[in-house]
Design goal:
The chain is mainly β and about 260 residues long. It has one domain: Porin, CATH 2.40.160. The chain has 4 helices and 12 strands, in the order αβββββαββββαββαβ. A 12-stranded antiparallel beta barrel has the order 1-2-3-4-5-6-7-8-9-10-11-12. The N terminus is likely disordered.
């Protein structure tokens, strides 16, 4: 957890149960102990991720991803809220921050999926989005809580936009061990849904893209070093779940890495 009580764990990609479902964890949340602000405010490091070729694929792959949580004045860069993003924001009172961000948008490679190859589905190259976000940071009882509402519009005009609602709750802290839970929901415009789930004879509409929930934990290896583990489950919804490209509605992500505090 960082100097503001913020959960300092990585997370990539999309999305969740509505943030209100985090209230299903009150007993765990009450176990969260208040912690003194750490001496080092920022976090960076490498991690290995096990992921599907794309949400809806039955193929699983390994790749390297960054763990990043940096903030100085109004500027920030992070992966801890579901995507790799950077931008600027300002406090507006009551625990709220408003800002804008650029975000890295993952693509899709047909070479990683036999279904995509057999159907001659083209690759989706990586992209960049620009957007806005509102973030609230506070507590439910003694437990630190963060809610994020974020809009991301891909700079490639044919790829549309997505909107995320995400919540994180710290549920445990004892000595070098910390743990939390999070949930997210993502909605996609028709252009965005078509980018990832259109297929011959199937033209998806916009709407709820998917939901996800995860557990994150860290262990202090030394004064400046943490080991971090993150397990997340995704479930596609709506036309994404009905797409011929969807082999399974549920997928899992596992991330493990180390991070340096500075």
């Amino acid at each position: 957890m960082d100097r503001k009580g913020k959960m300092s764990y990585p997370r990539h990609m999309k999305v969740s149960f509505p943030a209100g479902l985090l209230l299903l964890f009150p007993a765990l949340a009450l176990a969260q102990a208040a912690a003194a602000p750490p001496e080092y405010e920022n976090l960076i490091g490498p991690a290995v991720r096990s992921r599907p070729a794309y949400d809806g694929s039955k193929s699983q792959r390994l790749d390297l991803v960054p763990i990043l949580d940096y903030e100085k004045n109004v500027f920030f860069a992070r992966t801890v809220q579901g995507v790799l993003e950077a931008g600027a924001r300002a406090s507006v009172g009551g625990g709220w921050k408003l800002g804008g961000q650029l975000a890295y948008e993952e693509g899709r490679k047909a070479s990683e999926s036999s279904l995509l190859r057999n159907m001659n589905i083209p690759d989706v190259s990586v992209g960049l989005s620009a957007g806005l976000h509102a973030e609230w940071e506070g507590k439910i009882g003694p437990a630190p809580v963060i809610f994020v509402a974020r809009w991301r519009d891909q700079l490639h005009s044919d790829r549309g936009s997505q909107t995320d609602l995400r919540g994180t709750v710290g549920v445990y802290e004892s000595g070098p061990v910390q743990a939390g839970v999070y949930a997210q929901a993502t909605w996609a415009t028709q252009k965005s849904m078509r980018t990832y789930y259109a297929a011959p004879g199937f033209d998806p509409g916009g709407g709820l893209l998917g939901v996800s929930a995860g557990v994150i934990g860290s262990y202090d290896l030394a004064k400046r070093w943490q080991a971090i583990v993150n397990l997340e489950a995704h479930r596609l919804q709506g036309d994404a779940a009905r797409s011929p490209l969807t082999e399974r509605r549920s997928n899992y992500y596992l991330i493990g890495g180390v991070a340096y505090r500075f």
